[in-house]
């Protein structure tokens, strides 16, 4: 940018004026620096948290954000920072922001960028960069410099750079617009050093509804068509995907479910429970009732789900029987997803937040539906199955004579899950045990499903809890139920939880191995081979490591002591870490419904 142009802008007198007249008229005579303008633009979206490790590119932004009352959090690794921001987006239903220093910081953030892309998290990654004059010179030996956009652009939905100060509005808006449109996902904004303190006119900030689609409803004729199909269906089901929870549409879906009087089937990505629907919500494939409900259904209303591999694309395994008699209604924000994984009878393209209430209104006008005869039977059977699973687990080794069985670990820990808590999952085999044995029905579950990225648990826990607190002003308890190897990835982030006084308890199932992979060896070669690369030292004590971070630590070897230890950890007022030894053999060999899990990797059967 040449000096004349810069001066023009400082005067509030842009050369290329792309603002409507009404807005420029009010333009303040004083300019505003780019870093403050960015915060204004994010605030218009209700964003109040900022994650990252600051450096010269970001100290102005950080100081200003904290001065404005934002929650500003630094982590101990940029990948963790990115995962924190992803969890923040999920728990708030808004885009989130995360920064990283130029060069190694952005490289470290790559796992989180790619993860956000596959997990559909609308995170805006802002990368520091040298001033363009340095970048474009022909030089050797520049410090902390690498070209970043080529590394990142294939892993985000939108990538750009604020080359000129007056691009700040258009680039931040486009990043948010693209992040939140269709299937949500991450964006990258490069923020080179030369623009940070440049000034732009301090024009009024546009509200989201004026620069992007918000609350977009579906076509009215199609809504009427869908409502008629639902009203006439004998055995409909609601298939509730991840997007229902990340868009905070639970209450709207509850209203629709009440009108439909039908079972609610959770996809593997959408394992949170909607308040008031807990008794009629069945995890797809992992509860017997879910399978019966799916097989018998003559209408599936799929909400904000990709209909991905774990849902068998909605067309094989449990869906095969009765396919000919089943109508599909698909609420999806991305028009290009319609008909991809399976044919759809009535596509309802729009924001689930708007489309579900539209559907409810139309169904109400038709008088709603009577409960399917099977519904109360399903509810009873599922409750009974949960009791039986807890009883069956209670018959397994409890740690008093031999090492604890993972089913005991899961049932006892989930029974102690706090009311209104946030559940975060991480790990290999122990997570598979959770799908079957979990005894709690949390309203918020955060875990990494599509990308399958272990190690995300602690960053997800801290990010979700911090953003939730920033948004609501209340601190909800969090429980991280995790396996040991996964917990070690980002264990340094315990410090963040301690620093921020988060009411977080981490319950760690310890078998000193990559248990799921031990199982793979056994299934591939049988018992007794070396299980190269899957076992690690049995000297690690997570309760002691935790104490070193200023946490409350306990070592619990008996199943009956897990619940009381969790209660003591919450009561301690500190972050809790509970080390629970579990049986490596059972953990790697006795995963329940493993055959169901294997069908997620559907090579050759697609
Ligand atoms: C980042 C990443 N690395 C590796 C894997 C492959 N993987 C999936 S589960 C697992 C073992 C996890 O071990 P642990 O956390 O101890 O859980 P356990 O199976 O022992 O319960 C591995 C290596 C992955 N999914 N993600
Ligand atoms: Mg393990």
UniProtKB/TrEMBL annotation:
It comes from the Bacteria. It holds the Pfam family TPP_enzyme_N. Keywords: Thiamine pyrophosphate. Residues 223-359 form the Thiamine pyrophosphate enzyme central domain. Residues 431-580 form the Thiamine pyrophosphate enzyme TPP-binding domain. Residues 37-136 form the Thiamine pyrophosphate enzyme N-terminal TPP-binding domain. Its cofactor is thiamine diphosphate. PANTHER family: 2-HYDROXYACYL-COA LYASE 2 (PTHR18968:SF166), THIAMINE PYROPHOSPHATE ENZYMES (PTHR18968). Belongs to the TPP enzyme family. This is Thiamine pyrophosphate-binding protein. It comes from Novosphingobium album.
């Amino acid at each position: 940018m040449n000096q004349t142009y810069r001066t023009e802008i400082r005067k509030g007198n842009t050369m290329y004026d792309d603002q409507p007249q009404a807005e420029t008229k009010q333009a303040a005579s004083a300019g505003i620096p780019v870093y403050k303008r960015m915060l204004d633009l994010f605030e218009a979206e209700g964003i109040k948290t900022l994650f990252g490790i600051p450096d010269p590119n970001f100290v102005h932004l950080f100081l200003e954000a904290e001065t404005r009352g934002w929650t500003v959090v630094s982590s101990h690794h940029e990948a963790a920072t990115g995962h924190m921001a992803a969890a923040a987006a999920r728990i708030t239903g808004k885009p989130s922001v995360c920064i990283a220093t130029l060069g190694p910081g952005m490289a470290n953030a790559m796992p989180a960028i790619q993860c956000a892309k596959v997990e559909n998290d609308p995170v805006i990654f802002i990368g520091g960069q040298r001033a363009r004059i340095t970048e474009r010179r022909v030089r050797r030996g520049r410090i902390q410099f690498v070209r970043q956009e080529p590394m990142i652009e294939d892993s985000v939905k939108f990538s750009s750079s604020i080359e000129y100060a007056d691009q700040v509005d258009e680039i931040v808006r486009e990043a948010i617009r693209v992040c939140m449109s269709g299937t949500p996902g991450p964006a990258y904004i490069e923020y080179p050093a030369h623009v940070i303190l440049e000034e732009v006119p301090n024009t009024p900030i546009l509200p989201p509804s004026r620069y992007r689609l918000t609350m977009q409803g579906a076509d009215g004729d199609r809504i009427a068509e869908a409502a008629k199909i639902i009203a006439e269906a004998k055995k409909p089901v609601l298939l509730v995907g991840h997007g229902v929870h990340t868009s905070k549409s639970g209450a709207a879906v509850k209203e629709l479910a009440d009108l439909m009087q039908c079972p609610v089937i959770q996809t593997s990505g959408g394992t949170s429970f909607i308040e008031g629907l807990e008794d009629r919500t069945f995890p797809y494939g992992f509860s017997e009732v879910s399978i019966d409900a799916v097989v018998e259904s003559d209408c599936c209303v799929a909400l904000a789900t990709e209909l991905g591999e774990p849902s068998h694309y909605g067309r094989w395994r449990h869906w095969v029987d009765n396919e000919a008699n089943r109508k599909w209604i698909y609420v999806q924000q991305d028009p290009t997803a319609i008909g991809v994984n399976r044919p759809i009878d009535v596509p309802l393209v729009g924001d689930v937040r708007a489309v579900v209430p539209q559907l409810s209104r139309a169904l109400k006008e038709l008088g709603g539906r009577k409960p399917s005869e099977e519904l109360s039977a399903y509810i009873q059977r599922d409750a009974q199955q949960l009791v039986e699973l807890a009883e069956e687990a209670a018959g397994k080794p409890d740690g008093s004579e031999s090492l604890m069985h993972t089913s005991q670990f899961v049932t006892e820990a989930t029974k102690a899950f706090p009311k209104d808590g946030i559940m975060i999952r991480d790990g290999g085999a122990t997570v598979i045990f959770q799908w079957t044995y979990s005894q709690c029905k949390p309203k918020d579950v955060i875990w990494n499903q599509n990308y399958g990225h272990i190690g995300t648990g602690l960053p997800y826990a801290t990010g979700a809890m911090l953003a939730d607190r920033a948004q609501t002003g209340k601190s909800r308890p969090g429980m991280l139920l995790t396996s040991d190897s996964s917990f070690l990835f980002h264990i340094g982030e315990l410090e963040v939880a301690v620093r921020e006084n988060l009411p977080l308890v981490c319950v760690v199932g310890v078998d000193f191995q990559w248990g799921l992979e031990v199982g793979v060896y056994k299934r591939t070669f049988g018992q007794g081979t070396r299980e190269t690369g899957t076992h690690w030292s049995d000297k690690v004590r997570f309760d002691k490591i935790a104490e070193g971070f200023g946490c409350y630590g306990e070592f619990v070897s008996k199943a009956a002591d897990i619940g009381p230890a969790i209660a003591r950890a919450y009561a301690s007022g500190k972050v809790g870490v509970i080390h629970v030894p579990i049986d490596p053999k059972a953990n790697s060999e006795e995963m329940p419904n493993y055959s169901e899990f294997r069908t997620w990797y559907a090579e050759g059967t697609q």
